[in-house]
Structures are given as structure tokens and as C-alpha cells.
Design a protein that fits this description.
The chain has 316 residues and is of the alpha/beta class. It has a single domain (49-313), classed as Alpha/Beta hydrolase fold, catalytic domain (Rossmann fold, 3-Layer(aba) Sandwich), CATH 3.40.50. It is built from 11 helices and 8 strands. The protein has helices spanning 3-38, 115-129, 141-152, 177-182, 187-193, 197-203, 216-223, 227-243, 246-251, 294-297, 299-313; strands at 49-50, 57-62, 69-73, 94-98, 134-139, 157-163, 257-262, 283-287. It has an 8-stranded mixed beta sheet, with helices on both faces. Helix 3 links the parallel strand 5 (134-139) and strand 6 (157-163). The chain is globular and about 90 Å long. The N and C termini lie far apart (95 Å). Residues 25-30 have low confidence and may be disordered.
């Protein structure tokens, strides 16, 4: 074999080894990124922090402390900021807004995101604040936490209000290609690393039906989450609802129950709100032309309904 014949073979072999080495390097970088993203944590920050074992919690209090207490729990990826549009309607009540573990200004450990765990933590926060009875309001996933708290603490929860909380898993209708990828091992961690304000705003699209100016604070709060705090909370709420539908959980508690649902919710089938009729005495309010986030899309009506419900319960 002459030199001219050997040279192309050597070149091809060299290119093959270079490609193999490059693939190996990419695999190593992906593995490192996955490990780093999965191990990410953050400490709590904010004006009022309740110190708890396993993760401190950020809270915000508004209104007269001796007035009836309303506890506001945000949904997946949310924070106390999601409730700001309805605060004017609740100004004469004692309003306690809680950043769930892994969200907003609360700590973001690698675990502890089960719905029962989140609920116990909220209960511990209220105990520390001296709250003895409260109307607990939950938006979307926050409704799962509110329901779990009601299951655990009949001494503390006087009434429950759920805002666009899906009653059962098969009512969910906002599956997306990007959402599926985020939960895919390795790929999901890479997408998380590459997230931008633009991609976050796009992902929030299904949370609104009416045109809403999304505050920068909301985007910043989502950027501040860790991969585990987002996916862990999502998986936990799915498991909680799969284990037993929300209306079934509430039906035997005998608590005053208010259900608010947007008629144009893009995440949960609005017709599924009728499932809550199995809860004795439950009041169901459908907000016309409103999507998944009534607090922003129709804050006046939403705030008025919550205020009327909480004052009717009237337990300080």
C-alpha cells in the first residue's frame, strides 16, 4: 500500500477520534451541568423570615392584626407577588401571604416539596405568627397545599377558597413540548441552565387569557427558583391529586368552601369546576372571560369574592 492510499485512511481515523473525543467532552459537560443544576440550593431572603428546620419561609403581612385572617398561597412558580392586585380589596383584613418552600424569598433546599410537607410548614408558620384560625386561599397548586392543611389542621383552618385549582389530573390540558422536555433527565437540566426572561414569559403564556402586563418581579422570582424546587413541587402536586381528587378530600371536612374558576382557563378545563359540587355547601363562582389567573385578569371581582367569603366566615 503506497503513501497516497494510507493518507486518506489516517485522516479518516483522526477525524473519527476527534469526533469521539468531542462527543465524550459533551457528555462530560452535560453530566456536570446535570449534577450542578440538581444540587442547586438557595437561602431565604426578605423582610420577614420564619425560621424552620429544613428550610426558612418568607412571609408578608398586611392589614390589622386583630382582623379576620386570610392566608394566601400562590401556585407553582409563583410567589407573594401574585396576590398584590387583590390586596386593595382585602385591606381591612389581616392578610398573610406565604412563599411556599422553594419559591419567592423562601429557602430552596433539594427536597421537602410534598404537598403534606408544604402544608405542615405553612401551619408551622401560622403558629409562629400567632394565627389561631384563618381562611386559607390557594391558587392552582397552592390549592393543593390549602386542602392538605385543612386535612391536617382542623383547629387552624376555618374555611378554604380555591382559585383555579384543578380537581383531578385528567382535567389538565396545558401540556407542552417544552414542559415535557424540562422534566426529561439531562435535557431538562440543560434547558434550565439556558432559560432566559423571554422563555420564562413564553412559558407563562398559558397562565393568562386576557392581555396582562407581567411584572418583572414575577419573572425574577421564577428565575430565582432552583430546578429541584420547580420540578419537585410539580411532581408533588401531581402525586397528591392522583392519589385522591381534591373535591373528594374536601367533601368530608365540613368546611365552608369557595371555588373560583376562570371560564377561559387554558391550564385546567373550566367545566371541571363543577366537580366541586360534591363538596357539601361549596360555592362555585365562574368568572366570565377570565383565564387561569383571576388575581391579575379580574382583580376587583376576585378580591371582592374573597373578601366577602372571608368576612362571612369571620374568625379572627
Amino acid at each position: 500500500m503506497d503513501r497516497k492510499t494510507r493518507t486518506p485512511k489516517v485522516a479518516r481515523r483522526r477525524r473519527w477520534w476527534i469526533a469521539l473525543a468531542a462527543a465524550g467532552l459533551v457528555a462530560v459537560l452535560l453530566a456536570v451541568n446535570t449534577a450542578v443544576v440538581l444540587s442547586g440550593t438557595a437561602e431565604a431572603s426578605g423582610e420577614q423570615i420564619v425560621r424552620l428546620p429544613g428550610g426558612d419561609i418568607h412571609v408578608v403581612q398586611d392589614g390589622p392584626p386583630d382582623a379576620p385572617t386570610v392566608v394566601l398561597l400562590h401556585g407553582l412558580g409563583g410567589s407573594t407577588a401574585w396576590w398584590e392586585p387583590v390586596l386593595p380589596s382585602l385591606r381591612d383584613l389581616h392578610v398573610v401571604r406565604v412563599d411556599l418552600l422553594g419559591h419567592g424569598g423562601s429557602a430552596k433546599p433539594t427536597g421537602g416539596y410534598g404537598m403534606a410537607e408544604q402544608a405542615r410548614r405553612v401551619g408551622a408558620v401560622l403558629d409562629r405568627l400567632g394565627v389561631r384560625r384563618a381562611t386559607v386561599v390557594g391558587h392552582s397548586t397552592g390549592g393543593c397545599v390549602a386542602t392538605s392543611l385543612a386535612e391536617q389542621r382542623r383547629d387552624l383552618v376555618a374555611a378554604v377558597a380555591l382559585v383555579d385549582t384543578g380537581p383531578r389530573l385528567d382535567a389538565y390540558r396545558a401540556d407542552s413540548f417544552v414542559g415535557d422536555l424540562v422534566s426529561t433527565p439531562v435535557v431538562g437540566q440543560l434547558l434550565w441552565r439556558l432559560r432566559t426572561d423571554g422563555t420564562i414569559r413564553d412559558a407563562l403564556g398559558s397562565a393568562f387569557t386576557r392581555k396582562v402586563q407581567i411584572p418583572d418581579r414575577i419573572v425574577d422570582d421564577i428565575r430565582g427558583m432552583t430546578y429541584r424546587s420547580l420540578t419537585g413541587t410539580d411532581e408533588a402536586s401531581t402525586a397528591y391529586t392522583k392519589e385522591r381528587p381534591i373535591p373528594d378530600r374536601l367533601a368530608g371536612l365540613g368546611l365552608p368552601t369557595l371555588v373560583l374558576f376562570g371560564s377561559q382557563d387554558h391550564r385546567w378545563d373550566p367545566a371541571s369546576a363543577q366537580d366541586y359540587r360534591k363538596v357539601p355547601g361549596a360555592r362555585i363562582e365562574i368568572l366570565d372571560g377570565v383565564g387561569h389567573t383571576p388575581m391579575f385578569e379580574e382583580p376587583g371581582a376576585t378580591g371582592a369574592l374573597l373578601h366577602g367569603f372571608a368576612t362571612a366566615v369571620g374568625t379572627p
